[in-house]
Here is the input.
Amino acid sequence: MTLASFIALWLAVAIALELFSRRALRLYRLVRSGKPVARFDDVPARARAEATDVLGQRKLLQRLVPGLVHAAIFWGFIVLFPTILIAMIGAVNPHGTLPRLGAQGWYALLVDVFALAVLIGVGAAFVIRKLVRPARFQGSHLGEADLILGLIAGIVLTLFLWHSSQIALGLNDYPAAWAPISNALSRVVAPVAPVTERVAVWAHVLIILSFLVYLPYSKHLHILVAAINVYFGRTRARGRLEPINFEAPETEVRFGSGRASDMTWKQMLDTMSCTECGRCQDVCPAYYTGKALSPKLLIMAMRDNLFSGSTAPIVPNAVTDDIVWDCVTCGACVRECPVNIEHIDHIVDLRRHLVMVESRFPEEAGTMLRDVDRTSNPWGRPQSDRMQWADGLGVRVLQPGEEPPDVLFWVGCAPAFDERARKAAVSTAKLMQQAGVDFAVLGPRESCTGDPARRMGDEYTFQRLANENVATLNGAKVKKIVTTCPHCFNTIGNEYPDFGGRYQVVHHSEFLAELVRDGRLQPAASERTITYHDSCYLARHNDVRAQPRELVAAVGKAVEMPRNRERTFCCGAGGARMWMEEKRGRPINQERVREAAATGAETLAVACPFCTVMLDDGVRETGAKLQVFDLATLLHEAVAGRQTAEEL
Amino acid sequence: MSVLLLDEGNDVSRQALTLARRFGEPRSVPIDAVQPFAPDALAAALATAADELDATAVVAAGTERGNEVMARLAARSGLPFAANCVAVELGNPLTLTRLRWGGSLLEEARMHTALPLLTVAPHALPVDQGPAPQPVNVKRPEERELAVHVVEHIQPSHGGVSLADAKVIVSGGRGVGSKEGFAIIEELASLLGAAVGCSRAVTSAGWRPHSDQVGQTGTKVSPEVYIACGISGATQHTAGLKGAKRIVAINSDPQAPLMLNADYTVTGDLKEIVPAISAEIRRARAGRTS
Here is the structure.
C-alpha cells in the first residue's frame, strides 16, 4: 500500500512538473528574448517594493474590500505552503508528517485560521464576481477566474476534510485542540473518517498538482510572475520615459515596438503578470468616457499577440490605432496596477514605432510636431514673441555670459503664448518680485522641452530639443528652476538628467507655498470656496500634492472633488492629446468640470497651463458656474487684497 | 539598358528624369496611359513594361500620385521602394538620402536590389532639359489582374469655397449659439463669396463638421479678410490664423483675446451685427444696379 502510494505520488508529481516546466521554460525563453532595459540597479528600492507591494499587498489594499479578499487568499497560501509537503507525506504514509512543523500546535492553529481566511476570501470573491459584478471585469476571462477560484476552494475544503478525518482517526501529530475548526468538524466526519481521510488527502494533493499545471497556461500565471514583475518595476521617477539611444549601432536602435519581438523583456513580463483585475480600466479617463482604449484590454491584447508568435505589426493587427492615440499618459492605470504593469511604456513604444517608422498618427497632430521642430513651440509662434507675456513687468532676461540668478523662471510655451495660460506666468512673476526673489527668464533662448513630441512618440525631435535646452541651461550655470507647467517640471526634472541636465526643479506651487510659509508673501484668505484639480504630472507622476493645498487654504476655503490627489482625473490634455481632436466618446474635460461643479465650489483652481485651457473650455461648454484660475493668480489676488486692506 | 519613368508631364517628372538618366536609357510610361487614373492598373502596366524592357530601375515623381502608383508596384512585385529621394548614389547597394516626416528629417538608407523603385522629392534635383524619353506602349491590364477596381470617378463638388484657398472667410464661434445660428453666417459668406469657418468649440458642440474647423487641429487659413463672429480667440484657434492678412472680430466681450489682436473690431451682439452687415451689402448692391 505504502509503496504503491509512493509510486503513484511520484508519478503524479513527475507528470505535473514535466507539464509545468515545459510551459514555464517556453515563457522564460520568451522573456529572455525581449529587448534590453535597465532594471537591475537599485536593489534596496526593489527589495522594499517587494516587501510593501507583494508581501504587504499595498496596491491591492488601495481598494479595501477586494484588497482584503486578495490579501486573505495570498497570506493564506503563504502560511499553507508547507502543508503541500505535509499532505504529500500524509498521502504516502497516513502516520507520517513533516518533522517538527507538522507536530506544532501553533502551526496547526495558523493553518486552521488561514485556511478559513482563504475560504472566506474565495467566498467573497465569488460574491464580488457573481453578484456585485463590477464593470472593471468587462472583457476579462470570467470563466477562467471561476475555475481558479473553484480550484482554490477545492484545495482548502479538502484540507479541512483531511485534517478533521485525521483528528477523528487520531492520526494527527499536532494537538487537536490547537486546530479548533478541524476539531469541531471531526465529529461530523467521524462515521466516514477512514474513507474521507484517504480520499481528501489524495484529492488535496492532486488538485494542487493540477493547479500547478494549469497556472502557466492561464491568466493566473501572475502567482509566479507578479512578484518578479514588481521587483523589476521602475524605481526612479514615474514620469520618466526610457530614452532611445540613437548613438547605438543602427541595427540595435529600437524605434519603439512594431512587432512583438520589439518589446522589452519587462514589457513581456508585464503582459504575463496581468490578472485581468481591471483596476486600470476602472480609473482610465479614456475608457471612462467611452473611448477605444482600455489599459487592461491593451495589455491582454499585447499578451495574446506575444503568445501567438505572430510576426505581424502589432498595430493594427492586435491593437487598433485608436487605442494607441486615446491615451493621455495620466498614469492612473500604472498607479493602480497591483503588479506594477507599466502601461504608458507600452503605449509610448507603440507610438514611437507608428510615428518614427511609419509616419502614422492623427493627422491634426502633425502641425504640432512640425511646429515644435521648426519653431521650438507647439503653436508655431516666432521665438521673438516669447517675452510678450512679460510686457511692462520688468522681468530680467538672462543674457549669455551673465551671472545666473538664484532662480531661473522657466516660463514654458503655453504660458508664453496662450492668453489664458499667460495669467499664471504674470502672477508668478509679480509674486516673486514682491517677495524679492532674484530671478530671471531665458526669453527667446527658451525652447519647448520636447514633452509633447516625446509623448507623441517623436523621440527624435524630443532629444534634439532636450540636448539644446540642456546646453543652454548648463551654459547659463543654472542651479534652481521654477516652472508653472507640470509637464516642463516633469521633463526637466525627471528626463533631462538622462541628457546631462541636473537641476533642482521646483513647481511654482511648491515655490510659492514656501514663500507663504516663510512669511515673504502674506495673502488674506477669503470666503471663496475653491476646489483644486490635481494635474496628473504633478500629483501622480511627481507626488506634489500638499503644497498646492497649502496655497488653497491660504486664499480660500477648500472643497475636495471625489477624485483627488494621486487619484486625480485627467483634464484630457496629457500625452499630447492637447493637440489632437477628441473624436471618440464623451469629452474628458467636461466630465471633470461636472465633477468640480458638483462640489458646489465657486472656483476651480489649477496648477497647470494645459489644465487651465482644457477646464476653462469645459466650463464654457457645460455652462458650469465655475471660474478657472491658476493657484498663482488666486494667490496674487489674495496678497494684493491684503495690501489694499492694510492701506485703507 | 533601359530605365522606366512614370511621367506626369510636369516639372517634378522632369526632375525624376534627371535621376532616371543616371541609370540608363529612359523610357516613359505616361500617367494617363490608363484613364481615368487608376493606380493599381498603372502599377500592373509598369510591372509588365519593366519586365519586357528588362529595366534597371523604375523612377517616378514624389507626388501623391507617383508615390501611390510606386507603392502599389512595390507591393505587387515585392521589390524595395524608396519614396521622396533627394540624393542617390549608384552602386550595389544603392546609397540614398530621402525625406521623411514631411521634410523635417533626412534618412540615409542603403538599398539592396537589382531593380530599385524610386520616387524623387520635388525640387531636389535639377529639371532635365534633354529630349523627352521614348514612350512605351502599354496595354491596359485585364481587370482580373487587379487588386483594386475603379468603379466610378466622382468630381469634387465646387459648390462651396475651400477654406484653405478662400480669399474671404466668415467664421463663427461659440457665440453663434446653435447650429441654426449659422444661417446668418452662411448668408454673409454667400454674399461675400466667402468660405464658412468655425472654431473648435463649434465642432465639439456638433454644430458644424470638423472640415469647417479653423485652427491648430483644423485647417490653417490665409485669407485676405477673416471675419470672426463670436470667437474668443483661444490659441488653439489663432494658431490657424497666422496667414490671415486682415482680421475683423465681432464679439460682445471687448476683452476677448481675438478682439485685442484684430485689425477691426465690432463690439456687440453678432446676431444683430451680422444680419445688419448682410442687409447693408444687399442695399449697396441694389443701389449700384439700379
